[in-house]
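Catalogue entry: protein
Contents: sequence, fold tokens
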Amino acid sequence: MNHTLTPELTEVASVADSVETPLSNSFLRLQKFLKRKVGEAIVDYNMISDGDVVMVCISGGKDSFTLLSLLTLLRERAPVNFRIIAMNLDQKQPGFPDHVLPAYFESIGVEYKIVTENTYKIVKDKIPEGKTTCSLCSRLRRGIIYRTAKELGATKIALGHHRDDMIETLFLNMFFAGKIKSMPPKLVSDDGQNVVIRPLAYCSEKDIERYARAMDFPIIPCNLCGSQENAQRKQIKNMLRDWDARFPGRIVSMASALKNVVPSHLADNKLFDFVGVDRTTEVEQGDIAFDAPDLPDLNRIPEGSVDASAIPIRIWNEPL
């Protein structure tokens, strides 16, 4: 049975199925959609303010290239002035093409900083052969990024994590750490000196893949160090992709859930005073102990009620 989904439960990525070149109509619609999603995230979480210096961390992967591209486009029409500095950390991994990113940054005219630190040797010296190196590598990388942001006078550090990364992290923490915890769209860095932002928080990996493919970014493989992808994260990613294929709208709904938390209907005493609950206690959404879940009836949604462009437009987003 075919269902027409509400705007909140639809993936506009389908409009980009035929993306071929940056001049095609399908690509332009996809680019516009991604710009709007990034604009929404920036506004919703006050990610960028007037006068900010935004250091965009570029790994050479599709996500960070897309982030840099969209922020650069948004800056042209943004209601505030901000500076962008692209930053790459060359960790001296064997085979890393250190000429690719400087050449790309020069070609698009963006200010950039290449930092060279041989963290590869440190990791190889400390981690036994065959063991995953990602944890130590990420800690070393994080420290260097924080230090570089301070040296550059950056007020914001922009990372390329997207909506699907956030959902994967949520399930990783639930399945393997016993926590309801994800990647926040905005947080204070571990050193307390920087604010980290994730402007792609509302963007799906499918859309980013299509955008990167059409833009023909000079993608650098992420496995140059020889480390294997975290098996647990890969398992979660495969699970979510299977759900997305079999149950359209489920991933979008889970992303919405991250913004709609009801502490009084969970079980954490630190977030809600369950011990102090009595007959006078008011709780959000009341007593649903005997109620069926209030879920949308997809069979009753009027035909043609979906408009893929019907997404709230804020001051960061260009008009239709």
Q: What stands out?
A: The CA atoms of residues 69 and 252 lie 24 Å apart. The longest strand covers residues 83-90. The chain is about 35% helix and 10% strand.
